[in-house]
Each structure stands twice: as C-alpha cells, then as structure tokens.
Design a protein that fits this description.
Two copies of one chain form a homodimer. By secondary structure, chain A is an alpha+beta fold. Helices cover 32% and strands 24% of the residues of chain A. In chain A, helix 3 crosses helix 4. The longest helix of chain A has 13 residues. The radius of gyration of chain A is 16 Å and the shape is globular. At the A-B interface, strand 6 of A face strand 6 of B. Chain A binds a DNA duplex (25 and 25 nucleotides) through helix 4.
DNA sequence: CTCTTTGCAAAACATTTGCATGCCT
DNA sequence: AGGCATGCAAATGTTTTGCAAAGAG
C-alpha cells in the first residue's frame, strides 16, 4: 500500500482528511522502519508544534485497524512500533537499534501441516532481530 | 531445568534463598504457561499478604537473567514462564487467553541459508498464537 | 554482623479517556 | 450545520527506583 492508497482508504471509510494524518502516514512510509509513538511525534513537532500524544495514538490505532500500519514490540520496550503494511503476507528482519526492516518471503507456517487438533491458530509472529550495516 | 536446580543455581550465584523466591519459581513451574506479573502476585497473596510488585518484578528480572525464566509479550503485556527442561532450541504455540504453551520442534531459521551480508542476526522470535481447547 | 531482600511510597513511562473546542465536508 | 478530530488535563496500568527496615548466611 502506498501513501495515496492509504489516504484514499481513509476517505472511503468515512474518516476525514487532515494534514496531521497525511504527515503521519508519509513519515512512516518514508522511513521504512518500525518507529515508536515518540519518534513519530518528534518528527511532526516542527510542522505541528502543538500536536499531542493523543492524536498520535488515536491515529496509530485507527491506521492499524485499517491495516495501513503494522504493529510490533521489541527490545522489551513497552512500546509499539509501526511501519507500513504490505499486501503480501511477509515477515521481517528488524534492526534492534534503528528499527529498520528487511522483508522476508519465507513464512514458517507454510511448513506446518494445518491446525493441531487441540489448538486453534489465530495468528503468529516470526521476526528476526539483529543489526543493520549502519548500526553494527 | 527443574525447580530444585533453579534454587541451586540461585544459591551458587550468591543469591539468598527466601520463601518468596521459592514460591514464585514453584508457581510458575507448576503452571506451565506464560503468566503476567499480576497473575503471579495474585497467586502469592494468600501466602504472603504483604508481598509487593517490586519484589515480583525484581525477582522476575533476576530469574530471567539467570535463564530460569523465559519472557515474552502478548496481549500488550509482558509475560513470564518457567524455562523448561528442554535443552533443545524450540518455539511455542501460546494460548492468548490462559498463556498455556505447546512445544514446536520446527525452527524457521533452519530454512535460511546463513546470514544476509548486510544484516547480522542476533536473535529471533517465532510464536504461534491462538486458543487452546479449554479456552476456545 | 554484613550484605541482600523486601515493603512502602513515589516516580517514570507509555498509553487511554472525558470533555470542550475546532475543523473538515 | 453536524459530526469527526484534536488538545488539554487527568487517569490508567505497568514497571522502576530510593530509602529504611527486616531477614538470610
């Protein structure tokens, strides 16, 4: 999904266009990495000095609901991190320092032969952590 | 590792034996599932009415450091479980409601052909979430 | 006796909510 | 105009820290 499609989706679902929403999506799309709410806020402060955490959080969860963003946690931080969603199911290598991501086509669930009979699978997480070249 | 080995390890490392530490380890070992700090606290309240979150958290992070416990997060909460006897590298199916786990031999990293050259892998996480028979 | 562990209280921190005002459509 | 979006302030919930008292070796 690109920025324009995301904005289109918002509009289609009856949500309003605001400059803040657009900038939030643009920043996260441009960075191509998992960002914390605080990082996103700091990015927007220059353009919107009064912007508050509420707006960031409210929009982050809206975007996540609409599958515009993906959410994860790592580094034991009680912090959500967000990045742009893609259509295809995929997983990530994630840099523990800067949050940068690399895509991974491999999905380990493909190696499983359907549901175990005593457990209903609803979701899964496969992430590889480490350090990218710049952060090494 | 079993409970006695865990207590032994504590002693060997110069940490003191206390009834609270023992009960914490016993409870988590007995439950065989991921528990939150609050769940552990509630379990111990009857025996130690004055026990506080500080003690729980301080001991949880000590135990995790010593690899007596494993740590993960889901449902937006950090959870801990007793690190079981399995020496082998493994992953889990985890019940999102009760935290119960099932072992999984499959490790997706085995399907990867070594390190990508621009990313140093240090760690990974593969967890399957869903609901166990009782919680369904 | 000495050093660790604990409880208490309060701080730190990320996140959420109520309410009144402001802005998109 | 009408309803969603936002800022402010305050609440929530989890985890952490400083300090003095209690407990283990």
């Amino acid at each position: 999904m690109n920025v324009d499609q995301a904005l289109e989706l918002l509009k289609d679902q009856g949500y309003k266009y605001t400059g803040k929403r657009e900038e939030m999506i643009r920043v996260i799309a441009k960075e191509k990495r998992y960002m914390s709410a605080k990082e996103i806020l700091d990015y927007m402060k220059p353009d919107y000095p009064n912007i508050s955490f509420d707006t960031i959080y409210r929009n982050l969860s809206l975007f996540t609901e609409l599958h515009i963003l993906e959410e994860t946690e790592f580094n034991n931080e009680r912090k959500y991190r967000f990045s742009c969603a893609h259509k295809d199911h995929h997983h990530h290598l994630i840099c523990l320092r800067c949050g940068k991501t690399k895509h991974l086509k491999l999905c380990p669930l493909d190696g499983l032969l359907g549901n175990p009979d005593d457990f209903t699978i609803t979701d899964h997480k496969f992430e590889i952590y480490g350090y990218c070249q710049q952060c090494e």
